[in-house]
Structure formats: structure tokens, C-alpha cells
Amino acid sequence: MNKVKNKRAPLYARVVVDGKRVKIALRKWIELDDWSDERGVARGNRDAARETKHFIEEVRARLMQCYQKLQLQRQIITAESLRTIFWDPAKTNKVYAN
What we know:
By secondary structure, the chain is α+β, with helices and mostly antiparallel strands. It contains two helices and four strands; from the N terminus they run E-E-E-E-H-H. Helix 1 (47-72) crosses helix 2.
């Protein structure tokens, strides 16, 4: 499904754990001309590109925090559990009770 509207596309994070992957809709849009498919980052030095680059780094850091949180609590780490905690950190203890 192509979600491009007015030469803008939504940003997603893809998380893969043990071969299982999920997409996380980041609720942010980017101009197609400002995106580098090869590098997977925003290109350019305009304010919008810099903000997008910063946003993507924040998302990566937050995903790493979610991963570490699950690890510290000795929870089973899955792509689905990372997505759940990414959007609702309060569910950390409820993701897997095993």
C-alpha cells in the first residue's frame, strides 16, 4: 500500500528480533525529496532535515531503552513487545509475565 500524499511519506521504524519484524508508525511525515533511500536518513541541512535526523536518533535511543528495560526485567524480548513498550512504557511489566 502506497501511503504517499502530496509528495510526503510517513516515517516508520522497523524492528527485527529473531527474524520477526514489526513496523512502528512514528506519526511523522517527510518530503520525498528530503529522504535518502540508500542511507535511510533525511538528507540536507535545512531545518526540517535536521529536525528529522534528530527525531530518528531519538527514536533509535528510545528503542534501545525499551530493549534494555526488557533485558533488565528478564522479560522475553520480541519485536512485538518492543513496539508495545515504545508506545506505552507503562506496559513494561505487563508485556510478558513469563
